[in-house]
Design a protein that fits this description.
Elements lengths: L2 H9 L16 H14 L4 E9 L7 H4 L6 E11 L2 E5 L28 E4 L14 H25 L2
Helix pairs in contact: 1-2
Length: about 160
């Protein structure tokens, strides 16, 4: 399987924010962990990157954005070393969402766009412990704060997925 096929395979897993500890995550974290593993096994040098964004900057209906949530959020994506250059790789939004969100296509050598509008992009050297270190308690607190928003967002995605 070539790297473009691998990217498309992960990208096209339907995106969904987990709403409980038993709910399988298919969000940017999980998708990019899986993509990292597959590209690394394919022999590529890959690194995680994190940026901060605002949910309100996405093209989400106002009625969903009015649901209480933490607006500032962190987004995980990848960079892959291609011909001695770090290339941005973001497989967040699945192809079924093409009518409501910008879906990335990758040619195997150029940057993709980020799925979100970054407010801050952390450098690879910055020590960010949020990478895969979310505790059960922090997850439950996030669901308590933003769970209704996440549920409505997931439902909107599912309703509009083709």
């Amino acid at each position: 399987m070539d790297i473009i096929t691998i990217f498309n395979l992960i990208r096209d897993i339907p995106y969904k924010i987990p709403l409980s500890l038993d709910d399988k995550a298919i969000d940017c974290d999980q998708k990019h962990k899986e993509l990292f593993d597959l590209l690394t096994k394919h022999g590529l040098k890959v690194r995680f990157r994190i940026c901060v964004f605002l949910w309100n900057d996405l093209n989400i209906p106002a009625k969903i954005l009015k649901i209480f949530h933490t607006n500032k959020c962190e987004h995980l994506y990848l960079e892959v070393l291609i011909e001695n250059q770090w290339i941005v790789l973001d497989a967040t939004w699945d192809i079924g969402l093409k009518n409501i969100l910008k879906i990335n296509k990758w040619d195997g050598k150029s940057n993709t766009d980020l799925a979100v509008k970054p407010l801050k992009i952390y450098s690879p050297k910055e020590k960010r412990n949020l990478l895969h270190n979310e505790t059960k308690e922090s997850f439950l607190k996030d669901i308590e704060t933003s769970g209704a928003f996440y549920r409505a967002f997931n439902e909107w995605l599912e309703k509009n997925r083709i």
